[in-house]
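Sample entry was shown:
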Amino acid sequence: MDNSYPNEVKKFSRLAKKWWDREGELKTLHDINPTRIDFIKKHCNLNGKRIVDIGCGGGILSEALAKEAKTVVGIDLSEDCIQIATDHGQHQQNLNYQISSAEEFAIQNPKCFDIITCFEMLEHVPDPGSIINAAKKLTSPDGDLFFSTLNRHPKAFITAILGAEYIFNIIPRGTHQYKEFIKPSELTRWARKNHLSVNDIAGLHYNHWSRKSHLDRNLNVNYIIHCKNMI
């Protein structure tokens, strides 16, 4: 099954060389990464864990996770992003990257990972539920899964598209499509359908002026969710 939009893969491939420019078009990903890591570490210990990062892009999250985990595998469909991630992370022996879809990787590696991360990726594929199903298949019993995405809420359109893309030019125009945003009720329904318990959900907020991010209970824009594999 090809669960991808070719134009989306090409879009992120064009950005690959800019992935590690902390002052460039993807600086927001660098700025919010500590907050994402803190949320993960709040719910599980990374030490000794096997992790797969679905939709890893250029490896910002993967590299941070590999500082404490036993092994981290980042997967993505963009060859350019995987190459950039591999080159940048070559000093970390417990980190490797593969060009693969989540679905294909799950077939090859059932129940092989303790922690699954999939951040800012679900809103860029035709069938987000298929990604969650693949993540479930990858997870060992009692494993932890983390997803983040954008809520299909008017405030998300104003903040993430109108503001970030067209007014402040913080991220490239066309990065997001509002119709692809996912309501928390939809994401939690897909999780429970796959026998995942939803343990925590938090809104992730970013201040474009201070370049600081924080978590709270307002889910109107970005949100992050923690699940446990029940069986």
In short: Strands lie at 50-54, 71-76, 95-99, 113-119, 139-150, 196-207, 212-216, 222-229. The CA atoms of residues 153 and 182 lie 9 Å apart. The domain at 6-229 is CATH 3.40.50.150 (Rossmann fold). The chain has eight helices and eight strands.
